Amino acid sequence: MSQPTRLVAGNWKMNGAAGALREAHALAESLAKEPARARVALFPPAILIHRMAEQVKGSGVQVGAQDCHPESSGAYTGDLSAEMLHEAGARLVILGHSERRTGYRESDADVAAKVQAALRAGLEPVVCAGESLTQRDAGQALEVVAAQLQGSLPDSLDGLPFAIAYEPVWAIGTGRTPTVEQVEAVHGRIHDLLTARFSNGASVPVLYGGSVKPSNAAELLHARGVDGALVGGASLKAHDFLPIIRAA
Ligand code: PEP
Questions:
Q1: Which of 70, 242, 240, 101 shows the shortest CA–CA distance to 165?
Q2: How many angstroms is it from 132 CA to the middle of ligand 1?
Q3: 53, 68, 191, 236: most buried by Cβ count inside 10 Å?
Q4: What is the pTM of this model?
């Protein structure tokens, strides 16, 4: 069974107007000159996907979306389908981010329906899971993350490319990170779950996400079972994101 291909993903969230595309351009230029060892993907606000995909063409940088609707079309004001995102140039999609699980009350079943939609449209899902601080303090991190993933990953993923991001909710945007031992314990549990459930489970990359920055990237990225990173704030500027990519 092949090893997971490492992936470093930048989640811009609701940041970055058109001017921010210069950061994607700078990143693409640098990676075109000196290719990264890992796969690299940027997830801008949906309105920038098309322009960014054009801009980074040929550099190896992929572009993804931050969410999709489960249906392919219909009366869903304000939403975007996986098919629309694919047509715009997205090749991956983040699903089940804690900001959506919390802010939009997305359940594991909702996330699983969106994963199905992504597969239907040919998008590679990056499925997120992570425990709250209360759950961590109660010693429930492993079981919470495993339960979220069991409910969010449909069987139809079997044999197809997808990635997991372990993102402890209390580490996102806070500057706090778990210890390497805590990260390794959760990643080990996720790898076991993937291997038990999917024929290609051993080659599914499991990313760590939560306050990754240039100064802690090497330590987190080289922890056992960590196959890359999902990076929020530090992915907005090429000069912060590049050293993280180079550390992978
Ligand atoms: C994220 O949004 O997925 C994330 C990990 O954010 P940050 O790196 O800013 O903590």
A1: 101
A2: 14
A3: 68
A4: 0.97
